[in-house]
């Protein structure tokens, strides 16, 4: 701490979290993660990039995509300290894995984590037309939006296992309907907890070698596989292999929280199936047999798969009537979801609805404009070509 290097790197720069041990000589493998955090030790080098997540920009899908490429990362819901703990262990004990830091999209805690990320690495960030970004926020389901029923019995009424959707930004008199009158609350949430891209870039600016911005449409079902393949070649991680994962809508569907669930088909014989989505890696587990083609061959907009343990699979080969009942029930479940989706979509707002509302509430529109200008300054500076393609945002700017 008395060295010239420490003085120049930490004291002279007013570094708010100077390490209390010399990172160059500290034996990380002998230090518990909690103690390292409290000693302000920067994470060891070895992570390939930092992913700057933005809420509403395909964060859930990107987490699945990175995992499909065998990248070790943290949960997108982790606290800053848990992010540090996860990668401290990854970087010290799992050096055989490609590691990426997932910088959380919302609920910014403090600058500490970012000061402890001092390796010179690139960042990757998916960006979206800001007006289109408002759409999933104003239509966002609340905490009880679609509660998952973890165990369903064959024959259960669909209305008992697919619960009504509550909206986070619901109208005052109806929790099951979103309201554009809640846009001021969306703006407040953006400014207070979700608009953190600018802050994170500023905190990491000394160490970021580049920010690789990806247009939101490039992680859609028709382009995601190719996008991740190109990223893998550029940044040196494993290329994607299961194209079907990238061609399935992952987090944009409100059905995501419903899966996985266990379908109890015969309690007496312990015959149970697991209904999950193709992006769930359990489908690759050798303990399970994929029975999707046997039990369901209809329209599959949710990308579901049906798997069973080997003994259950074997037992069902001799229970043809039960197989028919299961197939019929699953088909009915999917049809019920589709019907509910159609009802919910009629309640929800699109970009045109949002722009028309802001035209009638010009002061609110100007507040959004100020927030967008601050948040997306770096995107505009580095990738004006992306911003120029934001059609709804260009229309929005005309009314401000």
Residue-averaged pLDDT: 92
The CATH topology of the largest domain corresponds to: Rossmann fold
The number of strands is 12
Number of domains: 2
Calculate Rg over CA atoms: 24 Å
CATH class assignment of the largest domain:
Alpha Beta
Oligomeric composition of the shown chains: single chain
Distance between the termini: 52 Å
Overall shape: it is globular
Q: What does the main sheet amount to?
A: 5 strands, parallel
SS summary, helix count: 19
Order of strands, main sheet, comes to 2-3-1-4-8
**Beta-strand percent range:** 15-25%
Give the proportion of residues in helices.
Answer: 40-55%
By secondary-structure content and strand pairing, the structural class works out as alpha/beta
CATH architecture of the largest domain: 3-Layer(aba) Sandwich
- Which regions contain 5 or more consecutive residues with pLDDT less than 50? none
Protein name: Protein of uncharacterized function (DUF2972)
Pfam family, one: DUF2972
InterPro entries: DUF2972
């Amino acid at each position: 701490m008395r060295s010239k290097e420490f003085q120049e790197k930490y004291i002279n720069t007013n570094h708010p979290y100077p390490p209390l041990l010399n990172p160059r000589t500290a034996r990380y493998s002998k230090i518990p993660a909690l103690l390292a955090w409290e000693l302000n030790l920067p994470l060891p080098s070895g992570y390939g990039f930092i992913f700057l997540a933005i809420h509403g920009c395909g964060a859930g899908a990107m987490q699945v995509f990175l995992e499909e490429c065998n990248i070790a990362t943290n949960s997108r819901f982790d606290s800053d300290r848990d992010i540090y703990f996860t990668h401290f262990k990854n970087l010290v004990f799992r050096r055989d894995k490609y590691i990426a830091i997932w910088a959380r999209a919302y609920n910014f805690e403090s600058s500490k984590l970012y000061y402890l990320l001092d390796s010179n690495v690139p960042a990757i960030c998916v960006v979206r037309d800001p007006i289109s970004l408002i759409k999933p926020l104003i239509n966002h389901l609340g905490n009880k939006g679609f509660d998952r029923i973890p165990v369903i019995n064959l024959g259960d009424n669909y209305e008992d296992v697919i619960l009504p959707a509550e909206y986070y930004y619901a109208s005052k008199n109806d929790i099951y309907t979103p309201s554009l009158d809640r846009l001021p609350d969306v703006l407040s949430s953006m400014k207070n907890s979700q608009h953190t891209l600018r802050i994170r870039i500023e905190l990491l600016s000394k160490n970021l070698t580049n920010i690789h911005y990806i247009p939101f449409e490039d992680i859609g079902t028709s382009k995601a596989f190719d996008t991740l393949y190109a990223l893998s070649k550029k940044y040196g991680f494993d290329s994607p292999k299961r194209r079907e994962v990238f061609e399935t809508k992952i987090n944009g569907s409100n059905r995501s929280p419903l899966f996985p669930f266990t379908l109890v088909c015969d309690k007496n014989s312990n015959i149970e199936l697991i209904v999950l989505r193709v992006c769930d890696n359990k489908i690759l587990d050798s303990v399970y047999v994929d029975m999707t083609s046997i039990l369901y061959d209809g329209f599959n907009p949710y990308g579901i798969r049906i798997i069973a343990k080997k003994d259950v699979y074997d037992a069902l080969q001799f229970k043809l009537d039960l197989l028919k009942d299961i197939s019929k029930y699953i088909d009915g479940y999917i049809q019920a979801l589709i019907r509910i989706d159609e009802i919910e979509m009629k309640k929800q707002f699109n970009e045109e609805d949002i722009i028309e509302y802001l035209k009638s509430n010009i002061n609110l529109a100007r507040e959004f404009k100020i927030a967008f200008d601050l948040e997306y300054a770096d995107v505009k500076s580095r990738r004006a070509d992306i911003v120029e393609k934001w059609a709804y945002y260009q229309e929005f700017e005309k009314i401000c």
